[in-house]
């Protein structure tokens, strides 16, 4: 009976193992589906819409083939469309019936030019042949040679652009592929179960074999021999008295043992075939439940954030690299590609001074990482801005800055930068994936309009606690104001010791010419960035006296003269960041960060 059960176990094991292996081989379907982008005209760019990328569920794999370098990038569809708005390109979309279609998009003609020359300029502008590589709009980009293979996992609101260099035609061979679920969750259990049954069959076979040998019983004895007759047990041809073993030799025993071992080895091979592939096993573990996080309600109708955190890190790194090169070369042209506003003005002055004064101080490098705060403007149009805070690990300080992009084709430029005061508490801000709206300069929803903050603070610098605005600003945490007062007292004292009888030194402050920047916080307040200009005037009080710049190479370099009978004006540009509470708040306006650099020096007319 044991042999019957052993045979049954072998048969069932073979069926189970065969079924499991078949699931993983002949019966397993394809693991991906591929769709080719339809043939299209030779245009410099191909934009694949997010609906095409999400034609099937799962991650997407983009493949493109052409001679030379192939470029691909992804970003928001609205941003990509804006970047391509003045160029001819191929748009790949999904038709209503689910078919992938490609069509050529030609930019709309602008207003009719007054003459043929202007018309020709407009035609050239419509086909600029821009290289898409390195644009700040892309969330990520890839460049490969001859064959592009880019794994993606993009939502429907994002698209992909494929090109070469923006001038030559884009690759004509482009395909998209998606994974197809072809898991065989019962293949593993079938193979393992078959292996177990095979082992049981082997055990039953061994037990049956042992039982059969024992069941033979003792052999029947022959007739008794006379007691005096010797027993001859020798085999013919052998020495008498030597008993010869009639069982199998060691060689035959070894062969039998290997035969028995070969059966479980087949089971082990089946187990190895099943391997540790998760697709061959059922999903038994419970799906982990994500931990709850703080809820931030997105205002109705709010637009998308300008950048992601990873995108902001990449943009700031590019800005830092470019400005570092400009600082080394003293190149205003290079700096102007990544700096604007107050940052470009003060850098220009620094390059002039360093070119004339060998030991003049190099400006502090632009910090790019690590980013501790990224607050992008939630806006689909242009110009768009981002507020960022970058920590300096070495000095244990932080820099707060504003970067702005004027249009889809421009690079982000750093317009404001200041150092945060030590232990400055930042107001509650929206997360980077939501962003915040930019506050209008004349917004009445703050305790002070953003376009009035600079003038009010300048008045406080000039008049101290006697200023009408002194009660609106928090003086206890304002270290910058104390530094200005201390510096002015020191300089005035030094001046009066030598030149009080022949000249005068006066100080004044006013709002800077830069447009204020304001972005909303979660408490209905705003972070406001402004500039203030501080001026020092030195002029003679005696008609026979002149102001000489013997020990002031900085002013001498900027003014271009060594002395003046009318005097000199030196201007410093302050970049200031404030937190301005919303209307109805009992809080005061708080200074968050500041920076001060010399702007110019002139002869008083």
Automatic annotation (TrEMBL):
Superkingdom, taxonomy of origin: Bacteria
Signal peptide limits: none
Membrane-spanning intervals of the chain: 186-209, 260-281
Region of interest called Disordered, as start-end residue ranges on this chain: 108-135
Biased composition (Acidic residues): 111-124
InterPro entries: DUF8094 (IPR058407)
Pfam family, one: DUF8094
Keywords, alphabetical: Membrane, Transmembrane, Transmembrane helix
Domain DUF8094: 304-602
Protein name: DUF8094 domain-containing protein
């Amino acid at each position: 009976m044991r042999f019957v059960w052993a045979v049954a176990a072998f048969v069932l094991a073979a069926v189970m193992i065969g079924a499991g292996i078949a699931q993983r081989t002949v019966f397993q379907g394809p693991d991906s589906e591929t769709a080719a982008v339809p043939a299209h005209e030779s245009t410099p760019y191909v934009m694949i819409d997010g609906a095409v990328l999400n034609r099937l569920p799962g991650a997407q794999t983009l493949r493109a083939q052409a001679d030379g370098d192939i470029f691909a990038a992804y970003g928001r569809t609205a941003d990509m469309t804006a970047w391509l708005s003045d160029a001819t390109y191929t748009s790949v979309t999904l038709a209503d019936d689910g078919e992938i279609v490609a069509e050529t998009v030609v930019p709309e003609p602008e207003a009719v030019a007054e003459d043929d020359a202007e018309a020709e300029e407009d035609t050239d502008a419509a086909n600029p042949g821009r290289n898409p590589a390195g644009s700040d709009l892309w969330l990520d980009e890839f460049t490969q040679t001859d064959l592009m293979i880019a794994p993606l996992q993009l939502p429907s609101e994002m698209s992909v652009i494929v090109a070469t260099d923006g001038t030559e035609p884009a690759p004509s061979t482009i395909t998209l592929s998606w994974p197809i679920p072809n898991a065989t969750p019962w293949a593993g259990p079938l193979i393992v179960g078959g292996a177990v049954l095979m082992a049981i069959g082997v055990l039953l076979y061994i037990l049956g074999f042992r039982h059969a040998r024992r069941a033979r019983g003792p052999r029947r004895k022959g007739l008794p021999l006379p007691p005096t007759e010797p027993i001859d047990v020798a085999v013919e041809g052998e020495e008498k008295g030597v008993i010869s073993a009639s069982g199998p030799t060691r060689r035959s025993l070894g062969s039998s043992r290997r035969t028995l071992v070969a059966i479980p080895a087949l089971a082990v091979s089946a187990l190895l075939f099943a391997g540790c592939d998760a697709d061959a096993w059922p999903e038994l573990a419970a799906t982990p439940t994500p931990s709850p996080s703080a809820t931030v309600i997105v205002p109705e109708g709010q637009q998308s954030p300008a950048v992601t955190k990873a995108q902001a890190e990449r943009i700031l790194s590019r800005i830092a690299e470019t400005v570092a090169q400009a600082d080394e070369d003293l190149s205003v042209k290079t700096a102007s590609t990544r700096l604007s506003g107050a940052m470009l003005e003060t850098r220009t002055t620094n390059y002039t001074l360093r070119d004339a004064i060998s030991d003049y101080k190099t400006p502090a490098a632009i910090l790019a990482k690590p980013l501790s705060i990224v607050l992008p403007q939630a806006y689909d149009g242009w110009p768009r801005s981002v507020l960022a805070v970058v920590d300096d690990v070495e000095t244990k300080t932080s820099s707060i800055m504003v970067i702005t992009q004027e249009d889809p084709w421009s690079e982000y430029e750093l317009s404001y930068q200041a150092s945060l005061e030590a232990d400055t508490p930042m107001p509650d801000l929206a997360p980077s994936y939501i962003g915040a709206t930019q506050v209008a300069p004349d917004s009445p929803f703050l305790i002070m309009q953003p376009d009035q903050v600079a003038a009010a603070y300048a008045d406080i610098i000039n008049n101290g606690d006697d200023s009408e605005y002194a009660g609106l600003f928090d003086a206890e945490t304002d270290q910058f104001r104390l530094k200005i007062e201390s510096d002015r007292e020191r300089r005035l004292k030094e001046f009066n010791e030598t030149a009080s009888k022949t000249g005068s030194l006066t100080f004044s402050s006013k709002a800077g010419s830069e447009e204020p920047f304001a972005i909303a916080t979660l408490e209905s307040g705003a972070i406001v960035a402004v500039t203030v200009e501080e001026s020092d005037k030195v002029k003679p009080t005696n008609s026979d006296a002149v102001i000489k710049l013997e020990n002031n190479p900085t002013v001498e370099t900027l003014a271009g003269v060594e002395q003046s009978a009318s005097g000199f004006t030196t201007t410093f540009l302050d970049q200031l960041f404030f937190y301005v509470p919303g209307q109805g708040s009992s809080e005061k306006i708080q200074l968050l960060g500041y920076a001060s650099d010399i702007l110019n020096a002139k002869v008083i007319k």
